[in-house]
Each structure stands twice: as C-alpha cells, then as structure tokens.
Amino acid sequence: MKKRLILRIGLYSLGVAILLCVVLVAHILAVTKPSNNTHVNWQLSRIDFENSLNDEQAQQILKAIKSIDGIKNTFVNNEQGTLVYSYQAGQLSNEEVYNQFTQKVDLAAKPYVAPPIDEASGCPVMDKESLSYRFSSFVQKTFR
Length: 144
Hints:
By secondary structure, the protein is an alpha+beta fold. Helix content is 50%, strand content 17%. The chain has a 4-stranded antiparallel beta sheet, covered by helices on one side.
C-alpha cells in the first residue's frame, strides 16, 4: 500500500514538473516572437528633472513632449523626476528634442547622458551571464 502511494505521489510530482516546464517554454516563445511592428530604428532618450514632480507638472511635461513631431512613446516617473521618450532615429536627435522641449516647459531639466560602461554593454538591464538569459536564449534557438 505504501509503495503505491509513494509511486502515485512521484508520478503526480513528475507530471506537474513536466507541465510547468512546458508552460515556461510556451511562455518564453510567446513573449519573444518576432513582431510585425519593428522598432529597429527607435531611439530611447531621457530627460532628468532636479526635483520629483507632482501630477500637474507631469501632465504639463507629457503634453509638451507629445506635441513634438516624431515622438512615439513617453513615460514620466514623478518620484524620480524623469521623462523617457522614444523617437525614430534619423528623423530627430536627442538635442533637438531637448531644445524644443525646454522651450515649451519651464522646469529645470537636463538631458541624461549614459555612463560609458552602460553605452558599451548595449542594454544595462540584460545580464548575458545570468541563468534566465541563457535559458531563454536556449529555448529561442531550439524552437525557432
């Protein structure tokens, strides 16, 4: 009787583990599939403000940055006092956007300049030595 119970528990555990692995692989493939909407030429830039922002200032900032032709996406972090925006590289430059933006908004701001170490590595968020990066790369290479 005990052997059967142990065997059942082992088989159920194995089944659940296999199911979870299948779900993980399916999820990785779903979120990393190529998109028809390519963002290859998009550039991300950031403007830092000296102080944190209130909601009224954030709305003013969003209105000003969205009024500049060529700006695609925007995000304001009120607590950190930052504005992140994207635009098509070649149509605009960071300096052009910053100059137009500062003419429309009366807040002390400066463009963010990435440290050389971050520029050299490309994406500072992605650690290519991490287990999660290596596993997802393996799954993508295997199933694509």
